[in-house]
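Title: Prediction job returns without error message
Component: structure pipeline
Severity: low
Priority: P3
Assignee: unassigned

Description:
Job completed but the reporter wants confirmation the result is attached to the right record. Sequence as submitted:
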Amino acid sequence: MTIPRIQQIASVAVVVLLMIVLFVPLPSCSKEALVDKPAIVNREQDAKAEVQATVDQTILNKKIMVDVKGAVKRPGPYSFKLGQRIKDAVVRAELTQAADVTQMNLAARLIDGQEVIVPTKEKASLKQPKVETPQADVPDAMLDLNAATKEQLLEVSGIGPAKASAILAYREEKGGFARYEDLGEVKGFGDKTLETLRAYLIVY
C-alpha cells in the first residue's frame, strides 16, 4: 500500500470520528435526577397544602355558643359557626320593636361564650356599661387573634406596641380575622413573621 493511499484512509477515519463526536448524543446520567427532583418537591408542597387545608376546615367547622339577650323576642343561647357575625345572632333571636341596634357593631365576629345584649330605644341615650368579651377557648400557649388583648399580644415574642396596636386596629376595622393568614394584611407582618408567629397565634 502506498503512502498517499494510507494518508487518504487516515483522513477518512478522522472525518468519521469527528462526525461521531459532533452528532451522536452521549447518554446523560443526570437527566433522571433533573426530572424527578421537581416532581418530589411538588408532591411535598401538595402534601403540606392538603394538611393545612384540613386543619383550616376543622377550625371552620367548630361550633361556638353565644348568649343573646335584651330587646329580642327569643333570648337565650344559640349555636353558630366560626366567622358568623353579631348580625346573625340578632336575626336568629328576632329583634323587638323597641330594639335599637345603632349602637351595636353588627359586623363584629362572634366569639365562643360571648354575651350579646341588644339595647332598647329608651336606653339608647344612656351610656351602656362596657362588657368584657370572654377569651375564646384556644389551645394552650396560643392566643386567639380575635380575642387577645394588647397586653397579651405584647407577651408574644416578635410583637411590639406598634404591631399589637396594628392588630387591634385591623380587628376593629374589619370585624376580626377570618383565618390566620389574614394577619399578612396587617402592616408589619410579612411571610417570615407569619411563619414565626404561627406557633403562638390562631384564629379560633
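Comment from assignee: result matches the submitted record. The helical segments are 3-23, 31-60, 86-93, 150-154, 161-174, 191-197.
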